[in-house]
Amino acid sequence: MTRRHIAYCVLTCAILGSSFVVSRSIVGYPILSGQAIRYALAALALFALVARDPRRIHPNGRELARLALVAATGLVAFNVLLLFALRHAEPAVIATVVGASPLLLALLGPLQERRRPAPRLLGAAAVVVAGAAIVSGFGASDSAGLVAAVGVLLCEAAFSLLAAPLLARLGPVRVSAWSTALAVPLLLLLLPFSGERPRLPDASEAAALAFLGLVLTVVAFVCWYSGVAGLGVDRAGLFVGLVPVFALITAAAVDRALPGPGKVAGVLLVGAGLVIAAARSGGRVKQDGWNAPRSSSAPVASPASPGNSASSSACTTGASPSGRPT
Predict the structure, then answer these.
(1) How much is the pLDDT for 79?
(2) Chain centroid to CA 142
(3) CA–CA gap between residue 152 and residue 313 (Å, rounded)
(4) Are 128 and 298 in contact (CB under 8 A)?
(5) Residues whose CB is less than 8 angstroms from the CB of residue 222 and which lie 6 or more positions away in sequence, other chains included
(6) Distance (Å, whole) CA 155 – CA 234
(7) Helix/strand/coil for 141
(8) Phi, psi of 139 (to 5 degrees)
(9) CA-to-CA distance for 29 and 129, rounded, in angstroms?
């Protein structure tokens, strides 16, 4: 692993884990409408960054179809299934199910690259998942809620797996720009069937949506895909376990309440899993395919570029209970 790409993943998880503070201000805003606004704002900002890149690279037909799948599964279906799951299960249940994504990515990432999953990396992912589950907690659910939560988990994995092969040529900024742009019309098509009544946001909601779209989404997507490009899906996926950890830390700071010993034990388990993974790779990443660290993994115009000041969802258009930048 490289420190730069690890930093991208950790930064993404830190922002997502703490974003619930902003999400609280738009809890009453229509979810799919908010997602459409958020992704539209993010797409505008991301394409502005693309325009500053002197390289004129555009997705071909096959890449565009794959980007549409990223948008349809990792962004749109993720939010639709999440909305349904929340009607049948407590958020902690969904967070625990979707928190298994590090293990799923550790298994499917290598298979997608036609190589065997590393047993020790799978073990590290299992430790991370166990720790994240303890931090997230448990709750009540019916069978429909569990099925929907599994669907959210699969969409969570698709967000990284489908995009990974595109990163070598298009780069994180272009992949982020096209996926967010393609998600907007899909969300708008679903609005008539959702029962939502779109409305203009008030001043506080508009400010929150602007922040989530222009800051959180842009920075999180680019940082996450930069980390995936450098570490590979399987290793980058391990850091998803840090999202509930950062959420716990933020909640403790905001609510001025120290976490209990069980939560602390979960945090230590997540850390132990990441240490196991780092020991396995010896600090290095295999430099082949789309997993090789490349200078193009963080384009010059990107907020994730080294040296920039940028330090980007979604029960309520903010941080998802899964802990990845959607």
Answers:
(1) 84
(2) 26
(3) 13
(4) no
(5) 46, 172, 173, 176, 298, 302, 303, 304, 312
(6) 16
(7) strand
(8) -165, -165
(9) 31
Indicate the pTM of the whole model: 0.81
Q: Residue 224 and residue 210: Cα distance in Å, rounded?
A: 20
Q: Which of 226, 222, 227, 214 is nearest to 173 (CA)?
A: 222
Q: Which two tokens stand for residue 66?
A: 């794959």
Query: Which of 255, 264, 291, 237 shows the shortest CA–CA distance to 125?
Result: 237
Decide if 172 contacts 299 (C-beta within 8 A).
Answer: yes
Label residues 208-222 b or e (16+ Cβ within 10 Å = b).
Answer: bbebbbbbbbbbbbb
Strand partners, 89: 141
Encode burial over 248-270: b for 16+ CB neighbours within 10 A, e otherwise. bbbbeeeeeeebeeebeebbebb
Q: What is residue 306's predicted lDDT score, i.e. its pLDDT?
A: 26
3-state secondary structure of 89: strand
Measured between alpha carbons, how far is residue 309 from residues 11, 169, 235, 303 in Å?
A: 12, 26, 26, 8
Q: Which pLDDT belongs to residue 312?
A: 33
Grouped pLDDT means (10 residues each) for the chain, 326 residues: 85 82 77 92 96 90 96 92 84 81 91 88 89 82 88 92 95 96 95 88 90 90 94 90 84 79 85 81 42 32 28 36 53
What is the structure's pLDDT at 324? 52
326: its two tokens? 């959607």
Q: What is the signed CA dihedral for 112, 153, 226, 106, rounded to 10 degrees?
A: -50
Residue 167: the pLDDT is 95
Give me the DSSP letters along 258-292: PPPHHHHHHHHHHHHHHHHHHHHHTT----SGGGS
Contacts of 150 (CB under 8 A, 6+ apart): 97
